[in-house]
Amino acid sequence: MPPKVKTEVAKAVKETVKKTVRAKKVKKVEFKYERSTTSKFKFGAHVGASGGVSNSVINARNLGANSFALFLKSPRKWVSPPISAEEIDKFKSLCEEHGYDPRTDVLPHGSYFINLANPDPEKEEKAFDGFLDDLHRCEQLNIGLYNFHPGSSLDGDHREALERLAKNINRAIKETSFVKIVIENMAGHGNLIGSNLQDIRDVIDIVEDKSRVGVCVDTCHTFAAGYDISTEEKFEAFWKEFDNIVGAEFLSAIHLNDSKAPLGANRDLHQFLGQGFLGLEAFRVVANSPRLHNIPIILETPVGNDDSYYGEEIKLLELLEDKTIDDTEFVEKKEKLSKLGAKERSEHEKKFETKKAKTAKKTAGDDIASLVTKRPKRK
């Protein structure tokens, strides 16, 4: 063998040996929580995507999630860099590797800045551009669902705001191919749209392609808006109302949160499962509701910088499957979690009662002033 060929062969063998050694050194990825293959539900969580959207897949898998949510860009900036082709391919590849169908298991959350109902035309257009950018990102990643807050009428007419919102949804549908636009119900603060079910129905009525619109029900928002879902009977009554007003076919996702604030407080304050005013019974009912099979059920409880607690809550929800209200293990967990949240519930109960008293006093004062104004003058 000629010396030059010998040298080339030796180099090739050496490189092959190096690659083999490197491959052996690569450790198998170990995830903190096992992912259930028997659960009837797609329990998941809102995970971080720092460093690239593809990281969200690993973060979700690490929590044992069967669905997940993420921000496709910074939720507090109007403009963000586009997603690179490399990140798009990596996201798709990781979803396939870990068994997530991006069309059904991933629920991105829209920017908090977006208000498609804004009465100011310039601000409305800016919001639409940000909204459409998110939808395009979804379709680049083959994501089939996109959740967003429906916005506010601000100082404008409420009915006109609903019409503006629906108009912009129609515009967005025409400029995209397949992503379903999922409207989230709200807690009822100020002039927000969507704190009552009729708002959502009114918007859907104006949407032209109803196959491209859906609803995400947030349990905390629902309770804060005055719909009591804390027991099985009340939970079923809410869904009967939902079906009658909105329509069961539009339910596309759930945001699963307990509430720090009492029923009807109109405050969007998420709490850990079982520690708030909803209590663990509400989530036992969720974990035994056939209507919630096969849709993303996303935790948004206040985990701070460490989202590993989501893994514990996912396992708690899976444990609640097939549990009855008098099951000993369930009763013990319910009491334990209730005690953990007792102090915060008491604090928020006092704030709510103070607010109600002030509102009642103001209303009484306004009524008296109105009577005085209307009293006929003596001749």
TrEMBL record:
GO biological process: base-excision repair
Superkingdom: Eukaryota
Entry keyword Zinc: yes
Keyword DNA repair: yes
UniProt GO MF annotations: 3'-tyrosyl-DNA phosphodiesterase activity; DNA binding; DNA-(apurinic or apyrimidinic site) endonuclease activity; double-stranded DNA 3'-5' DNA exonuclease activity; zinc ion binding
Ranges of biased composition (kind: Basic and acidic residues): 342-356
Keyword tags: DNA damage, DNA repair, Hydrolase, Metal-binding, Zinc
Entries under CDD domains matching the protein: AP2Ec
Gene3D superfamilies hit by this protein: Divalent-metal-dependent TIM barrel enzymes
Pfam families for the chain: AP_endonuc_2
Cofactor: Zn(2+)
Disordered, as annotated region: 342-379
Domain Xylose isomerase-like TIM barrel per the UniProt entry, residue ranges: 59-318
Record GO cellular component, one term: mitochondrion
InterPro entries from the UniProt entry: AP_endonuc_2, AP_endonuc_F2_Zn_BS, Xyl_isomerase-like_sf, Xyl_isomerase-like_TIM-brl
The family this protein is said to belong to: Belongs to the AP endonuclease 2 family.
HAMAP family per UniProt: Nfo (MF_00152)
Protein name: Apurinic-apyrimidinic endonuclease 1
Species of the source: Scheffersomyces stipitis (strain ATCC 58785 / CBS 6054 / NBRC 10063 / NRRL Y-11545) (Yeast)
